Amino acid sequence: MWILEMALKQRIASNKLIILIMVVIVAGMSQGMLLPLLTILLDRSGVSTEANGLNAAALYIGIFSTMFFIERPVRRYGYKPVIMVGMGLVIMATCLFPLWQQIGFWFVLRLLVGIGDSALHYATQLWIVTSSPKERRGRNISLYGMAYGVGFSLGPIGITLLKAGSWVPFLTTGCFFLIVLTLVLQLTNEKPEQLDKVEAVHKRASKVLAIAWFPLITSLLYGYMEASMNSNFPIYGLRAGLTESNIGVLLPIMGVGGLIMQLPLGIWSDRVGRRSILIVSGLIGSIAFLCIPFAGSNLWLIGLCFGVAGGMVGSFFSLGLAYAADILPRHLVPTANVLASIQYSLGSIAGPLMGGIAIRYISTASIFYLISFIYVLFALSGFTFRRQTV
Q1: Burial 100-139 (b: 16+ CB within 10 A, else e)
Q2: What mean pLDDT do residues 243-260 have?
């Protein structure tokens, strides 16, 4: 009887993980398509690089603003309702994009997509992290990262669907969301572990930052890199002599690199330690980004650099969350996820803005030099990090 009960629990947990991973795949597809697609469409219409970058940042402004209140509804209502509301917002906004190509209208829609993405990602991340045993946490959160990488890599392919009509890429993504939403309806709702006593948010946040500042930096860097590449690289590529089709092929390579290395890095981090893996990955990723401008317009060399860079830093967000969950008291893990999402949003807002300014006033290649420098600083800071308690 006990064996049957355990087998049933494992089966339920496995099904839940599969459905959550499917949610993340579709969310990654949406984000991977919208960033470069909308950037290209605005660039075609003559929008400046600064305005283009600001418009791209709207999605992450939405994500950032959501983080100030998302923890409370998740604790009160559970994971499932938050995921469903988030998916609903993304579906609605995505289907409205082709209705009116106006930069202010798109800014508002991107805000809504950001809010929806933030809600569903926060809930899925936290659900996976808190329900995974410590010995499998690295593996499971790496599967989450792999799922996002798969979706994000497939997303830019949506650019090619423009040939069939301006509505096609957006409606296709909306249909995928609806399919997965029917699967989410089958899940049994759960809630995070409740606090034994009410503690001010700023006090919880201070404790989390004091204990896990290094793991949480990874979300900032990942957000900066991801948004900068998907918003600024299309402009860099067009000015470097690449075609829109070339850009649509190259961008997924970074996601594929992250996809290939997500699970190995997650498993290795379980065995040899997450700090060491993050330091080494940051250094190798820095070198890969530094080499991209020297590849010129050679697709093979750019693709190789993208693959290595994505493979090394594509796991940063998920590994950072797993590392934070390892060293924090269990009741502080939801707060850590909020802070990680806030930092991801800040990095994502800064990426397109700083990249757009750098392209205009320094050089198109400066976006890669800046990213490389940031990852070197991160790796060096890792040598000073020591686990502590508060």
Answers
A1: eeeeeebbebbbbbbbbbbbbbbbbbbbbbbbbeeeebbb
A2: 79
